[in-house]
Amino acid sequence: MSVNIQIAPVNSHYWSALAKGELHYQRCQKCGHSWLPARETCPRCLSEESEWVPSSGRGKILSWISYHKAYAPHLADRIPYNVAIVELDEGPRLITNIITEPPDRKVSVGAEVVLKIEKDFGLHLPRFRLASPKPMSE
Amino acid sequence: MRGRVVISGVGNTRYGQHPGRDKIDLIVEAARNALADANLDKDEIDGVFVKLATSSPGILYGQKVSEALGLRPTIGCALDQGGAANIGLVTYAALAIEAGIIRNALICYGDTARTGTHAAYHRPRGDDAVMGWYSTAAGYAMIHQAYRESYKVPDEHFGIVAVTARNHGVGNPDAHLRQPLSMDEYLKRPFVIEPLRRDDMCLVSDGGAAIILTSSEEAKRKKNARAVPILGLGQAQESWEVHLRPNLLSTRARDSAEMAFRQAGIRREDLSFAQIYDCFTITVLLTLEDYLLAPAGQAGARALSEGLGVDGWLPLNTSGGLLSESGIPGLQLIIEAVRQLRGEARLQVKEPRYGIVSNQGGSMHTHATMILGAAG
C-alpha cells in the first residue's frame, strides 16, 4: 500500500471536516470565488481572506474513466475501478470515485451524483454515488 | 518571424530501444547528424537549447549536454514545458538569433524512457492518487471520454488517427514500431484505461533528435539551399490541471495556432500537411479542431471520409508520429516537416508549400505551434 497524503496547515481543515462527515471547500471573502484543492490564496483575485464552507454534497460528473491496468501494486485487486471528475453544485471540482451500486446504474458524463464519505487507507474519502433519478415532472 | 530564421539542419538517432546507452550520448549522436546535415562545424554553435528529459529531469542539463559536445556556448539552457518545449525552445532560440545574440542554435532532446525508467508516465498524481488517480494516460482518457460522450462519436473517429499514424510508420527504418494497424484490430484491443485502448496511446521510446537554427542571411551566405524557413511560431498555455480547467473540449492550442497563422500570413487551406502531436489519438482530434482545420466534434468524421494519408484531406504525421515513429516528444515532428518541405521525405507529399507542426504537453497543459515554408 503506497498512498501518501500530504496533510499540512493549508489542507488540514479539509481532511478533519471529512472525518466529521462533511465536505468543505474554500470560498474567497473578497470576490466570492469557490475552489478546491486547498490553497492559501484565492486563485481568482489573490486575496488571502478565505473561509471553509460546507458543500451540499450534490454535483455532476464532468468526465470519468475506468482503469483496467494497475499502475501501483496496491491497485491490482481493485481493477477495474473508475475515477471521475465531479463538479459540485457550488463550483469546486474533485478527482473522485463513483460508487456503482446498484451495478445496473451507468456512470456517464453529465450524471448527477451525491456525496458518500467512505473510510479507506485510514482516511475519510469524498466519494459519490449516482443520484436517484428525478421523478417525471407533470 | 516570417522566414528571418531558418532550420539549417536536422538529425536523429534510430528510435526504439538503446539499452545501456546514456541519454546525453543519444543527443550527441543526433546533434552530429544534424551538424553534418547542415554542413556546419560544431564550434559555430553558440546556443545550446535542450528539452529536459521526461524520465529523469535534472538541473544544469543544458551545461551537461554542452560539455558532451565540447562546447562553451553563449546561451546554454534547458526548458520544461512538457511536450511543447521543443517549439518553445525554437521560439526562444529564434528570438536570440533575430536579436543578434547568437548565430547558430542547436535544439536537441534525448531520453531513455524505454529501457531506462518510465516511472514518470505511471506516476501517482499528487494527493488525488488516493482515489487511484495515476499515470499520464489518465488525463487524456478523461478528455477522450468527455469528447466521446459529449459529441456521441463512434470509436472509429479515434481509431482513424491511430491507423493512419501506424501505417505511415511501417516503412520508416528509424521508427520504433513498424507494425501496421487495421481498424478492426484497433477496435478489438482491450481497454487500458477505458476509453483508451493500447493503440490510442503513444510509444515510450529511447532516442535522440536535434535541429539547427540560423538566420536566413547566414544560410544564404553558406549557400544552404535546403534551409527551411520558419514563418510562424505560436504559444499559449492552458496550465490548469485537467479537472480544474473551464472546458475539456477546447484548449488554448486555438490561440497558439492563431498566433502562428497570423505571423505566417497564410490561410488554413494553404497547408500541404500537418505534423500533429499525437501522444494520444484524442489530442489529434482536439488539435485539428482548435486549429480550426475541422469543426468541433467532426475531425474524426472528416478523417474517416477524406483520409489523412499523403493524398488525403490533410496528410498527417507522415513519418508515423508519436504513435509509431517515436514517443520521444516533439522534435521528430519538426524533423519530418523539414524533410517534407525539402522534398526528401520517405512518404513525400507532392510539392508541399507550407506545413504546420503542433507540440503540446502535460494533459494538454502546454501548447506551441510552428508553421514552416518550402526550402530554398
SSE pattern of chain B: EHEHEHEHHHEEEHEHEHHHHEE
CATH architecture of chain A: Beta Barrel
Into which percent range does the helicity of residues of chain B fall? 25-40%
Number of strands of chain A: 9
Q: CATH homologous superfamily of the domain at 5-116 and 204-221 in chain B, by name?
A: Thiolase/Chalcone synthase
**Mean pLDDT over the full residue set of chain B:** 96
SSE order of chain A, as H and E?
HEEEEEEEEE
Q: Report how far the terminal alpha carbons of chain A are from each other.
A: 51 Å
| Widest beta sheet: strand line-up of chain A | 6-5-4-8-9-7
Choose one word for the global shape of chain A: globular
CATH topology of chain A: OB fold (Dihydrolipoamide Acetyltransferase, E2P)
Q: Tell me the radius of gyration of chain B.
A: 19 Å
Largest sheet of chain B: 9 strands, mixed
| N-C termini distance of chain B | 17 Å
Mean pLDDT of chain A: 93
Number of E strands of chain B: 11
Count, helices of chain A: 1
Biggest sheet strand line-up of chain B: 3-2-4-7-1-8-11-10-9
Uncertain regions spanning at least 5 consecutive residues of chain B: none
Structural class of chain A: mainly beta
Structurally, the number of domains of chain A stands at 1
3D structure, described in words:
The complex is a heterodimer of chains A (138) and B (376). With 138 residues, chain A is mainly beta. Chain A has a single domain, classed as OB fold (Dihydrolipoamide Acetyltransferase, E2P) (Beta Barrel). Helices cover 6% and strands 38% of the residues of chain A. Chain A contains 1 helix and 9 strands; from the N terminus they run αβββββββββ. Chain A has one helix spanning 12-19, and strands at 24-28, 34-35, 50-54, 58-67, 81-88, 93-96, 98-99, 112-120, 123-130. Chain A has a 6-stranded mixed beta sheet. Chain A is globular. Chain A starts with 11 loop residues before the first helix and ends in an 8-residue tail after the last strand. With 376 residues, chain B is α/β, with parallel strands linked by helices. Chain B has a domain at 5-116 and 204-221: Peroxisomal Thiolase, Chain A, domain 1, CATH 3.40.47.10. Helices cover 34% and strands 19% of the residues of chain B. In chain B, the strands form 2 sheets. A 9-stranded mixed beta sheet of chain B has the order 3-2-4-7-1-8-11-10-9, with helices on both faces. A two-stranded antiparallel ribbon of chain B has the order 5-6. In chain B, helix 5 crosses helix 9 (281-290) and helix 5 packs across helix 10 (299-306). The longest helix of chain B is centred in the first third of the chain and has 16 residues, at 23-38. The mean pLDDT of chain B is 96. At the A-B interface, strand 4, strand 5, strand 6 and strand 9 of A face helix 4 and strand 5 of B.
